[in-house]
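Regression check, IPE case 239:
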Amino acid sequence: MSEANPKHSHGARHVAIIMDGNGRWAKKRFLPHAMGHKKGVEAVRRTVRAAGELGLEALTIYAFSSENWKRPEGEVNDLMMLLRNYIQSDLDEFIANNVRLKVIGNYKALAPDIVVLIDDAIAKTAHGDTTLAVALNYGSQDELLRVTRKIADMQSSGAIQPDAIDETLFASMLDTADLPPLDLLIRTSGEHRLSNFMLWQCAYAEMWFTDILWPDFGPEHLEQALEDFANRERRFGGR
Ligand code: IPE
Ligand code: IPE
Ligand code: MG
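Current build output:
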């Protein structure tokens, strides 16, 4: 984790977004769900560019949750196809813009060809200085359980004593270990819940909610969120 100062006067280093409302965006227009997701990818593209321009060190986006498998098979397939296309079409732009791709969540359980695409993109962007972390097959409870199981293994093999299990050790084993602390969480579409996203990392994150549906989200909304963030007083429990 880098201890560098924020690059921008808004003071945020790491923003995460729960990109919600693709379905409602499509429904309002009497379009199929898939069109909402397709437009959602365009919003991702705009937002990733804006994040770089606004000097963020990391942008984490919730693209597919561990609970989204409950959706109809056709919708899951559409989302996976959009993911394949997105990685393939935007990889050159990531490289050109020094974007480092990272994935949080159990992405190895996705289709083997997607895992190959992701691993290749991660390797080719490894030297980028702005991180785009995509949450894929991600659930925060799953992430916390994976860490807990690892720690239990370490303890039973005698590699660690219970006293040594502290916040620093735990955070260093999360999928987000190499990202700056989360400053700001954004959720679109008027929902006010976390939906199993970054429960540990949200401990002292600021929250920003908007009624904008994800396909309508753009740089101006990210800028607005960061402007609001700059005016918040963060106390971390102190005075
Ligand atoms: C968010 O849009 C995208 C994913 C969860 C993959 P939704 O598809 O959840 O949109 P709504 O909530 O139905 O409007
Ligand atoms: C959260 O949105 C997951 C993603 C944005 C990928 P959902 O639409 O799945 O969340 P719920 O079901 O409304 O809580
Ligand atoms: Mg939703």
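Comparison notes: Residues 208 and 225 are 6 Å apart (CA to CA). The first strand starts at residue 14 and ends at 18. No diff flagged against the previous build.
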